[in-house]
Amino acid sequence: MGYFEGFGVTLKKWGEGVTTKEYRGGRTNRKGEISSKDQKAPKPERVHGRHVLNKYEDGMEKCIGCELCAGVCPANCIYVRGKDNPVDDPKSPGERFGYVYEINYLRCIHCDMCVEACPTEAITESKLFEFSFTNRSDAIYTKDELLVDDKGMPQHLPWEDWRPGEDQHTSGWMRATAPSGKASYLGTGWSGELGYGVREGDLPQDEKDASVRDHVTVDEHDDHGDHH
Amino acid sequence: MTATENTEPESPEVDPGVPFTLNGVELHANEGELLISAAERHGVHIPHFCYHPRMTPVGMCRMCLVEVDGGRGPSLQPSCMLPVTPNMIVNTESEPTTKAQDGVLELLLINHPLDCPVCDKGGECPLQDNAYAFGPGESRFVEEKRHYEKPIPISDLVYLDRERCILCDRCTRFADEVAGDPLIHFIDRGSQTQVNTFPEHEFSSYFSGNTVQICPVGALTAQPYRFAARPWDLSETESTSMVDSTGARVALHSSQNRLVRIQGVDSEATNWGWLSDKERFIYEATDSPDRITEPLVRDGSGEPVRTRWNSAIKKAVEALTTASDPRRIGVIGGARLTLESQYAWAKLLKGLGAIDNIDAQLGDGLPADVVMGLPKATIASACAPGGVVVLLGADPKEELPTLYLRLRHAVQSDGVSLIEMSPRQTSFGASVAARLNPLPGSAGQIASALADGMVGTSIGGISSGELTTAHELLTSDRPVTIIVGRGNLAESADVVVSAIAALRRLVPNATFLTALRRGNIHGALEMGLTPGYLPGGRPLGTALAGWEMAPPSAGLDAEGILRAAAQGSLDTLVLLGADPLRDFPDHTLAAAAFERVGTVISIDSFLTASTDRADVILPAAMFGEVDGTFMNLEGRISPVQAKVTSPGQAWPDWMIAAEFAQAAGGDLGFGTLAEVRADISASVPAFADVDWETEGASSDGSVVETGGSIELSLTETAPIPPADDYGLRLVVDRKLWDNGTMISSSASLGDLVDDAVLTLAPADLERLGGQSGQEAQVSIAGGDSHPIVVKADGRIRPGVAHIPFGVNGVQAQELLTAGEPVVDVRVQV
Ligand code: SF4
Ligand code: SF4
Ligand code: SF4
Ligand code: FES
After folding, report:
1. Which domains does chain A have, with CATH numbers?
2. B556 and B697, same structural domain?
């Protein structure tokens, strides 16, 4: 008993179809194309995916190697080392830059505490979570891999399944709190960012709360985001 | 005990102190105690920035304002400037107090940059902490802040960021008051007030790192630590510095198994929280590319080849056991080791190997019986108010800088009188009570004259006035401490010994500090790494279980060992972290010794000139990587702790000794550190009661009785003949920054080493027809000439030429001849 019931559940579910069936892992056919049926489900705009390290509009790195993200990370998966900025070739504005930056995705729980902690909006998360690896060293993203490219867009690594348009929405406005840490902040502004420019400040918190409330009454399935 | 009327101090009623009320609780303060420290002692923390318990309060920052009612109604007063007075009522939590704290912090933060994420202090910053705990939480200042050029280097080791400075006066006070190097100061006025150096003068103090440690903000940062880690990824262990024999207490900070910082720990007994930059930054050496990480054995072609421990030890033990006679083996070094390692090596060599040609000093110290047998003072007793200190050795600022800070404080603030008998003027400058800098070789003569009371006329160029002052001080009933060392490597140790003999004749109760600079040298002598002695200062021949093989008669010291090697009568030379080719004060002899000696076995952490000649090189773990115990110049033992793992296959020295014993078919009787300690406790009476486990509980460690029962009989030798007209008598001494292995291996310190300069009295330079700054030739009789820059210096006595040892350029050891009482040089311009 109990043993065959388990198979029963499986059989029943088989008949029901699979909720994630649209997504087949981005496998390509012989022509190197992804099947048109292989669709990712839409994600809410604040979903937490793999990180990016952003740059300023002039191409300077935003990360200053302060290790606050590493300090706050509950999974202890960020490793940062700072260094004096080379005077003739500064990597970031100011004295210090992130010299080593690594995130171990075998441990990251995508809580976004690092994003909250970052004083410069250097680390944010993209929406991408469709990535898998076959060895440990691929799983540890280095600074070279995390840094956005010359256009400010995330790099597409071989083991990641990026689809057109997914590069968007990776930048600073993912943050939930104001730099002052106060819930009642008004109109947070963001620093300019390569590829996105200066984003509009967020709504004051009370207006935002109201808009979220409205949103929830209209669409109960908030999980599936706006586009569903 | 029965109390009598005239013993009032014995009365059971202890003076309870000054009564006062703190936050409604009635308490007592000590007489004259500052309110801020009395409150702290009673568990009430008053926030502060400028107050530092080891410096004079100045009331600069106003953070410590509290509401005080001294009888005329409550008012806000700085608690760091206010001694507790009877019945004072203090409230540190009242509304006016918190309002004042809010206000002070808001004002301090007006011009303070939002640098915390890139600031080395961020995470351990008193300004951050106080702003959180006592600040208003909100700034009303929206205007542009004051700007300065971001960090400016004020020395090779320290950067200053004036935007972050809160003008607390700690660094400037330290430089002026504690270090005596007033090279940084406040300049300008009003909101432009800033700390800065004098134009063209950098903050080149041996103690500059302390300002970084005591700066309550991140305005001062240390170049070697800049951005190396953040406070939250540091882990910390308390240890004892092995850099010199003061044994300063330190905290080792590591991140990712790398030492990244050393901070001073306030030990009442030794360093009072201060460190020299050498003690502070020397950790860089642990990371040096010159570290030896694997055993190396030189093959037929002369190249060192990596090998396994087993075969390297086998080769080394072969060399030791095939020597026809233990007297054909010599061992030099051991002062860098921990007490436990020293004991293990002494037991291996003497107890098992019957070898007694062992010397931990490299001809630059004092005879072992003198070091162990003199009645010991402590740093505290030497610095106790009202005492007299005789300085019969080198300038402590160059050799034992933290001891210098303690002595300087004693002389400046506690009425200690200093009699300077060092070979040349020291850094105490004008604050010495009597200046008796004897000509090289004549210290004994001057001391004898003092002992005989012959002070009416000048002797050896020292005026009768100075002699009389010194004589009066020594014959007053003030306690006398004599600090002895080798202030002149060009003069034999006998000269110092004869001066000691004479001074003891004059002041029989005098106590001594043996100011030898090598780290754990006192431990080495105590553990028997010196000819003639078993551990505990007991002469060879004393029955000691486990040491049955110890030879009956004393062997050779370092000079003797090198001479034997140079004559071809030494088969094997073992170097325990020693580099005689660079360090022995007679290069000709050392070079000749290495030329002819058979096998050289080097146990070291670094590749040195001497390891280049070694046949077997074994990697030893170093300071910061080993657990053990240190003995300082007072005989104080305190723990040394490992913080990081040693690189590659380096081992602690005591383990190497144990492996040697096993490979030779013997057994030292220990396999763990605890067993080594138990063995020491069992065989050295002074250590019988040492509780090794709890030794680290207090930062002060504890003083053990050293030297066993050595009975000293010292002789006052005859004076040395005067130099001829052409000759200048040589003074060679050490500088803090020299080309020692550790300094050269530390990335930030290697460049601080000066070039050799020969200084002489202005009159002498004029007589020679030379100009200050020009190049001249210096030579000893029958020796090569060496080009060297000469400088006139009014502080050098006529007839004396001074050259520092071990710096860049001319190597003073090439001018020295071991065994000569004095060295005369000829200078030609
Ligand atoms: S990503 Fe942000 S928080 Fe992390 S080290 Fe860089 S600047 Fe600091
Ligand atoms: S000194 Fe303190 S408060 Fe100022 S920037 Fe540095 S960490 Fe922040
Ligand atoms: S640099 Fe630091 S220690 Fe010096 S005055 Fe400024 S805040 Fe004080
Ligand atoms: S601590 Fe008292 S005024 Fe600064």
Report:
1. 43-155+167-214 (3.30.70.3270)
2. yes
For a pocket test of ligand 1, which of A52, A123, A141, A171 has the largest count of ligand atoms closer than 8 A to its C-beta?
A123
SS3 B414: coil
Residues with CB under 6 A from ligand 4: B 48-51, 59-64, 78, 80
Task: Write down which residue in B232, B252, B286 finishes a domain.
Answer: B286
B757-808 pLDDT, tens digit each: 999 999 999 999 999 999 999 998 888 899 999 999 999 999 999 999 999 9
pLDDT tens string A157-194: 999 999 888 887 676 555 555 555 555 555 556 778 88
Find all residues with CB under 8 Å of B50, minimum gap 6, and list them.
Answer: B57, B58, B59, B60, B61, B63, B80, B168, B169, B170, B216
Please tell me whether residues B580 and B698 are part of one structural domain: yes
Q: Is B63 helix (H, G, I), strand (E, B) or coil?
A: coil
Q: Using the beta-carbon criterion (under 8 Å), do A66 and B232 form an inter-chain contact?
A: no
Which of A190-194, B429-433, B627-631, B738-742 is least confident?
Answer: A190-194
Average pLDDT, chain A: 80
Which domain CATH number covers B71? Answer: 3.10.20.740
Contact residues, chain B, for A71 at CB < 8 Å: 123, 230, 232-233
Cβ-based burial of B359 (10 A; exposed 0-12, middle 13-18, buried ≥19): buried
**Gap from CA of B263 to ligand 4 centroid (Å):** 23
Confidence of residue B475 (pLDDT cuts 50, 70, 90): very high
Cβ A95–B118 below 8 Å, yes or no?
yes
**Residue A221: pLDDT over 60:** no
Contact present, B57 and B80 (Cβ < 8 Å):
yes
Mutate to test the pocket of ligand 4, among B63, B134, B167, B172 (most ligand atoms within 8 A of CB): B63
A224 Cα to chain B: minimum distance (Å)? 37
Whether residue A216 is predicted with pLDDT greater than 70 in this model: the reply is no
How confident is the model over B18-42, as pLDDT tens digits? 999 999 999 999 999 999 999 999 9
Supply the pLDDT for residue A220.
41
The residue ranking higher by pLDDT, A5 or B775, is B775
How do beta strands B727-734 and B757-760 pair?
A: unpaired
Do B733 and B771 reside in the same domain of the chain?
Answer: yes
The ipTM, to two decimals, is 0.83
pLDDT for the residue B137: 80
Tell me which residue has tokens 């370092």.
B558
Q: Does B342 share its domain with B386?
A: no
Residue ranges making up the domain that contains B630: 296-356+533-703
B683 shares a domain with B587: yes
Which pLDDT value is given to residue B6? 46
Q: Are residues B281 and B308 in the same domain?
A: no
**Alpha-carbon gap, residue B731 to B758, rounded angstroms:** 10
Residue A120's closest chain B neighbor by CA? Answer: B117
- Nearest CA-CA partner of B731 in B792, B822, B828, B826: B822
Written as one string, the DSSP assignment of B523-588 is HHHHTT-STTEEGGGEETT---TT-TT--SS----HHHHHHHHHTT--SEEEEES--HHHHSS-HH
Whether residue B497 sits in one domain with residue B539 = no
CA distance B61 to B65: 9
> Does B212 map to a domain?
yes
Ligand nearest to the CA of A124: 1
- Domain-embedded: residue B112: no
Judge whether B227 and B422 are in contact, CB under 8 Å: no
The contacts of residue A14 (CB under 8 Å, 6+ apart) are none
Report how far residue B446's alpha carbon sits from residue B649's, in angstroms, rounded to the nearest whole number.
Answer: 53
Q: Which of B116, B150, B233 sits opposite A95 (nearest CB)?
A: B150
Q: What is the pTM of this model?
A: 0.91
Same domain, B466 and B503: yes
Tally of domains in chain B: 5
